[in-house]
Design a protein that fits this description.
By secondary structure, the protein is mainly alpha-helical. The protein has one domain. The chain contains seven helices and no strands. The chain has helices at 12-40, 47-57, 68-92, 98-124, 126-131, 134-148, 178-184. The N and C termini lie far apart (59 Å). The model is unreliable at 1-7 (pLDDT under 50).
Length: 188
């Protein structure tokens, strides 16, 4: 195969980079949803981040409002979900059509919710598993998965093939000159 016609697959490094970007954006949207839903429930906007901060500070991180400890919970969310995005994109790369990538990423986000909040956090961070709001958090993970499913947008585009004269486009025929037209016409 010629280098110009060879299809380029996403390298693992470009997939990791695209997944990090999509994961970071996805977790920001998820946290925005979690904050808005917490306010609608009459709780603090920063409830999810404060719960995640309990990994470092225990029950001392559980309070209403924003504090210095909230930043550690926010950072932990950003780290975990960005890495998850990178791992997802590295596993999928550009092997699936975009619609399937979107559907698989929704399933991935929801599966991560059930795995982490149902099993993992119960042993590592029991306060998170116990005090989180299940319905808004599961919907937040669907939002995360939806945004993560757009990671192919962040993959580098393959270079456009060079345009050459012999690429199947014919050059327009030259018009005959005046002297050629005279020699072709018969003399009476």
């Amino acid at each position: 195969m010629d280098g110009a016609t060879e299809s380029r697959r996403a390298t693992w490094l470009s997939a990791v980079s695209a997944g990090l970007q999509a994961g970071m954006l996805g977790v920001c949207w998820m946290l925005l949803w979690l904050g808005v839903s917490a306010v609608l429930q009459g709780r603090s906007f920063w409830t999810a981040e404060n719960l995640m901060a309990s990994a470092f500070y225990g029950e001392g991180a559980i309070h209403s409002g924003f504090a210095g400890r909230t930043l550690s919970g926010l950072a932990l969310y950003l780290l975990i979900y960005s890495v998850l995005g990178a791992l997802f994109a590295m596993a999928v790369r550009d092997r699936l059509p975009r619609l399937r990538v979107f559907l698989v990423s929704l399933l991935f986000g929801l599966s991560w919710y059930y795995l982490s909040f149902g099993l993992l956090w119960k042993s590592v961070m029991p306060l998170v598993a116990l005090l989180h709001s299940a319905q808004p958090t599961s919907l937040g993970h669907v939002i995360y998965g939806a945004v993560l499913g757009r990671y192919p947008v962040y993959l580098p585009k393959p270079p456009a093939p060079p345009i050459t004269a012999d690429a199947g486009v014919e050059a327009p025929a030259a018009e005959p000159s005046v002297s050629e037209t005279r020699s072709e016409t018969p003399e009476p």
